[in-house]
Amino acid sequence: MAVKFSELSKKLKMTNLELRRAIKKLGIKVGPRQAMLRKEVAEKILDGLGYERKLKVKSKKSKPQVKTKKLKENQIELPKVMTVKEFASIIKISVSEVITALLKSGLMITINENIDFETAAIIASDFGLEAVAEKEEEKELPEEYLDKKENLIPRSPVVVVMGHVDHGKTTLLDSIRKTKVVEGESGGITQHIGAYQVEITNHKSQITKKTRLITFLDTPGHEAFTMMRAHGGRLADIAILVVAADDGVRPQTIEAIDHIKASGVPVVVAINKIDMPGADPERVKKELAENGLPVEGWGGSTPSIPVSAKKGEHIDELLEVLLLVTDMNELKGDPTGLARGLVIESRMHKGSGPLSSILIQKGTLNQGDVLIVGDVWGKIKRMENDRGERIKEATPSMPVRVLGLSGVARFGDLALEAKDEKEAKDIIKGRDRERAAKTIGEIGMAEAAQSIREGKAKSLKLIIKTDVAGSLKAIKDSVVALSTEDVKVEIIGQGVGEVSSSDIELARASDAVIVAFKVGTNLSAKRQALQEKVKISNYEIIYELIDDIAAALEGLLEPEIIEEDTGKGRILKIFKHHRRDKIIGAKVTSGYVSMGTLVRIKREGKLLGEAEIKNLQQGENKAEKVEAGNECGINLVGEVEAKEGDRLEFYKKVEKVRNIKR
């Protein structure tokens, strides 16, 4: 016995489209155009939607238990984005009439093209209907990407360093890196991948005295906490707050304290520059207590360690305290199942293509796995650790650089391992549709970013409308702070209240983007914006607004060229020595040398010049790469003097996308 799909939707008092969406959420397989359902399938749908009676029971008393929003007679509920056909079905108007109404509003859109809620609401009003936005469901991470309690094992802590400018954050990280990064292996030079690991034996731990690892983020502290806020998770396990002993608590110190408190991350205070004249650690402790972060000995439980990052004093003690904090918090991770992580650095490499550095948070990522990262995906061709060594797998708390993604991932993007390539493609297609839903509503900022990238615009012009004066001031201050010598934000209009027709006129005349924070747009202004093709970007969260404006401005910045060291060597013999062309015999003493890299030639510490490696040979065979400890023949191109015994420094030039400081 079969049941008509239309009868089932009528019984549940739902449109066909609403019912199909509900069936999809229940996980019941029904074809997109299936008109008839088997009786047992129909009963399963009714049970899943909370309908009390089976289909065969015809009782006036039985009512569907589906909770829906109560709407007025002329109201309709619309999703954030829909096709013209879907819209026509919801409002029960023929597609041809809807397309005619769109044409009258200046839009030539076909039956299968998407329209956003704002556009649909305007067209619905032409038919005497009031549109109500469909409530979005909160998305949760699928269960396979969550830690399973029975699989949890101890893991390394992830540490972020914060503090006021010039208090020694970078110097402290450099000091730790130089003294503690794992050495003695081939390719021991630390690579810049956004994080690195140090190895330490904790002599004070009551739990274990074995050698352990600590992961340090190179990511600026405020960016790390922004990422945590965006994803609702924890990127760092422990924060080091660096305060200069000769300067005390400063504005950025207070800001860092606020970030740390909001995140709930344990903190260790490093009182730096104790070797400087005027250093007063006790004054620092007093000021910390006054700003809500009392340390041990001052009524609090926060550890504080006096250090000199410049001289490397008390670094071991600081690292041991970090491990003690780790033990107290019992940090654990699940190394089983599908991998999950966050992008901590990403760039386009001229020779290799898109490179992304990922901090693994769950599971084990293997070479050959399929990875979905934001809007890009790919099969991992190569994985490297923070020392540039090729590795086969990466586990929780480990930073890893991957090659094989289809494009450059964004900082903070969630990385998820897919079961296979088909699943990855399906997920990306779904995200494309979700992105369309967001972009259609906020296309003003997207188009501004595109215009900047294409060189059509030299600055970003904004009209800002907010719900209250306090929000307007906060947004203005944050946006203006994004401007640099290279990029500029122009606020040409501002105000409190909904977007009006005068805002649309100003935006059209000046090619500006309207940014609406927690305010709507009146119906006449919506219609005018549609006809004038003025775009309005709507936001509910300030940091998302700031991030989008910063992303648009980044299109104006020229990429930064950085030099990345790959290895060192020594000239053993000169076989050919012309002015611009030389063939030498060399030994690679650390790291590696590869085709296309550059080389600095030094004699007794003095730089003689630089050259490019045209050809590389090992024995009688051409080589793409020669590792430490091996001899090779190198064809150098460049006007530089060279002789036996000269030192070689191999490096690559890499383009790095410059970011706006938020």
Notable traits:
Arc Repressor Mutant, subunit A, 17 helices, 6 domains, six-stranded mixed beta sheet, 662 residues, six-stranded antiparallel barrel, 31% strand, 34 strands, Rossmann fold, alpha+beta
Provide a concise account of the structure shown.
The protein is of the alpha+beta class.
Describe the SSE topology.
Elements lengths: L1 E3 H7 L4 H11 L9 E3 H10 L26 E4 L2 E3 H8 L3 H10 L9 E3 H10 L3 E4 L19 E2 L3 E6 L5 H12 L14 E7 L9 E7 L3 H11 L6 E7 L6 H13 L3 E6 L8 H10 L13 E3 L8 H15 L2 E2 L6 E10 L3 E10 L2 E2 L3 E4 L2 E9 L8 E2 L4 E7 L8 E5 L2 H21 L1 H11 L6 E7 L2 H12 L8 E8 L4 H10 L2 E5 L5 H10 L3 E4 L2 H13 L5 E18 L3 E14 L3 E6 L2 E13 L2 E2 L2 E3 L3 E7 L9 E10 L6
Parallel strand pairs: 3-6, 8-10, 8-11, 11-12, 12-13, 23-24, 23-25, 25-26
Antiparallel strand pairs: 1-2, 4-5, 7-14, 9-10, 15-16, 15-22, 16-21, 17-20, 18-19, 18-22, 19-21, 27-28, 27-34, 28-32, 28-33, 29-30, 29-34, 30-31, 30-33
Describe the structure.
The structure is a single chain. The protein is α+β, with helices and mostly antiparallel strands and 662 residues long. It has 6 domains: 68 residues, Arc Repressor Mutant, subunit A, CATH 1.10.10; 65 residues, no CATH class; 182 residues, 3-Layer(aba) Sandwich (Rossmann fold), CATH 3.40.50; 92 residues, Elongation Factor Tu (Ef-tu), domain 3 (Beta Barrel), CATH 2.40.30.10; 113 residues, Rossmann fold; 97 residues, Translation factors (Elongation Factor Tu (Ef-tu), domain 3, Beta Barrel), CATH 2.40.30.10. It has 17 helices and 34 strands. The strands form 9 sheets. Strands 9-10-8-11-12-13 form a 6-stranded mixed beta sheet, with helices on both faces. Strands 15-16-21-19-18-22 form a 6-stranded antiparallel β-barrel. A hairpin with a 2-residue loop joins strand 29 and strand 30. Helix 8 runs parallel beside helix 9. The longest helix has 21 residues. About 6% of the residues have low confidence.
